[in-house]
Amino acid sequence: xxxxxxxxxxxxxxxxxxxxxxxxxxxxxxxxxxxxxxxxxxxxxxxxxxxxxxxxxxxxxxxxxxxxxxxxxxxxxxxxxxxxxxxxxxxxxxxxxxxxxxxxxxxxxxxxxxxxxxxxxxxxxxxxxxxxxxxxxxxxxxxxxxxxxxxxxxxxxxxx
Length: 160
Ligand code: THU
Fold this sequence. Notes:
160 residues, alpha+beta, Cytidine Deaminase, domain 2, seven-stranded mixed sheet, binds tetrahydrodeoxyuridine
């Protein structure tokens, strides 16, 4: 028997400490919370994706009275980016969430389904996607989508 010990490196910093390009992406993600359609949860999530061509694409959660038909901000954002720029890698994505008129104190972390989609996008372009999770008190930065979903299911699993 062997044991696999996986480690996840997460950079933790405040907004003031963030590099300028990350600050810009966070500002876009925070701003995108205003476009959320979240009448049921009143949890307004925004995301901003930085593409390798320098474009920033934003998105937000879009809910539905038939709850499972809605979609999270991260998936709206990467699907929109991938549909607009199918040949362009996503280098980074920032996520922020607002509730009761305030941004969350702690980093807003993507759900399992979004992690799967972020991983697929990262694999599709063959380059790591930084994941920046905003909180008013602290920001988390992961070096890749894979770091969010270790031992994930990918293309290679289908053809193993
Ligand atoms: N949501 C996101 O958009 N992204 C996340 O990372 C977490 C959750 C949305 C889904 C739903 O519209 C609302 O937030 C409450 O779960």
